[in-house]
Write a structure and sequence with these properties.
The chain has a two-stranded antiparallel sheet. The chain is mainly α and about 300 residues long. The chain is globular.
Length: about 300
């Protein structure tokens, strides 16, 4: 009798627990899982929703089309350039700022809040302010450069050569605060006795960083690298708000090209194929980073 009551009580507790997670699970299944599966199906089909409601199987034709699509090639190149510009710079700057914020300096709580503020600020507001600051004719940045003697300052987001570096700087400035907090949490978990012992052994600042700080924050470094890589490969909102993929196609990245194909040209089959390629790229990079982390951790 006691066993029956215990079993009934356990089932009741499980039912209550499932009832709490059911809304989230149902929402994920309907709004995320089903569209992902449908994208896999559409990637081998042709569906021009603007002209026809019929879905036609075309096999690998959508993937073959990418080989001759100049915009896809430019978007892929721009995405790689953006990733190379953002990931290492944000990682290094975040670590340096975290080490500085971890020191006992006056007003460090205030500085931590200031560094983190751009991350929580609205991207729309940030984009508008950034465009105003770097306006090629009336922006305060160029006004300052001209006051310092620069006769032809860069036109920033309005120039085909400077548009991508401008967005890279914007991305670094906006995201560095979050990853600084990640590194700061890792640094505060390092036992202070390790630093005290190393000082007693005569280790200088570089030796303490190399032998203590860097190995201890390695898991956080791989987390930051993976999250930044995923972010840069799927970036869209920043380009949409600031440059609309321009000037020309200078800031047209993969997800922006996907958006144009899906919601401007209404070519959902080709857009789904681009999404599958993007999915595979991110998956391969993530698996490589995890494998490299295991080897690097075992080496340490």
């Amino acid at each position: 009798m006691g066993e029956v009551k215990k079993g009934s009580y356990r089932r009741k507790k499980n039912l209550i627990a499932y009832s709490f997670i059911a809304p989230n699970f149902i929402g994920f299944f309907i709004l995320t899982f089903i569209p992902i599966i449908f994208s896999f199906v559409l990637s081998v089909c042709e569906w021009d929703a603007g002209n026809s409601s019929q879905i036609t199987f075309v096999g690998l034709a959508n993937f073959q089309k990418m080989l001759t699509d100049s915009t896809f090639k430019i978007s892929f190149k721009n995405t790689i350039v953006y990733t190379i510009g953002v990931v290492p710079s944000t990682l290094i700057l975040s670590l340096l700022l975290a080490m500085l914020m971890n020191c006992k300096i006056k007003g460090r709580t205030f500085f931590r809040s200031v560094i983190f503020f751009p991350y929580v600020a609205s991207l729309v507001a940030v984009g508008v302010v950034w465009n105003a600051l770097f306006h090629p004719d009336n922006g305060p940045v160029n006004q300052l450069l001209m006051a310092l003697g620069v006769q032809n300052p860069p036109r920033w987001a309005a120039d085909i050569h400077w548009a991508m570096p401008t967005l890279i700087l914007l991305s670094i400035w906006k995201n560095v605060g979050y990853y600084t907090i990640v590194y700061l949490a890792a640094l505060q978990g390092v036992p202070g006795e390790l630093y005290e012992a190393s000082k007693m052994d005569g280790a200088n600042a570089w030796q303490r960083f190399k032998c203590i700080t860097w190995p201890m924050v390695t898991p956080s470094t791989f987390f930051v690298a993976i999250m930044l890589t995923i972010y840069t490969f799927k970036v869209f909102d920043m380009m949409y708000i600031t440059t609309q993929g321009g000037p020309g196609r200078a800031t047209n990245v993969l997800v922006y090209h996907l958006y144009n194909q899906a919601f401007i040209s209404l070519n959902f089959g080709y857009a789904s194929a681009i999404a599958m390629v993007l999915f595979v790229i991110i998956l391969v990079i993530t698996l490589f980073q995890f494998r490299f982390e295991k080897k690097f951790t075992s080496y340490l």
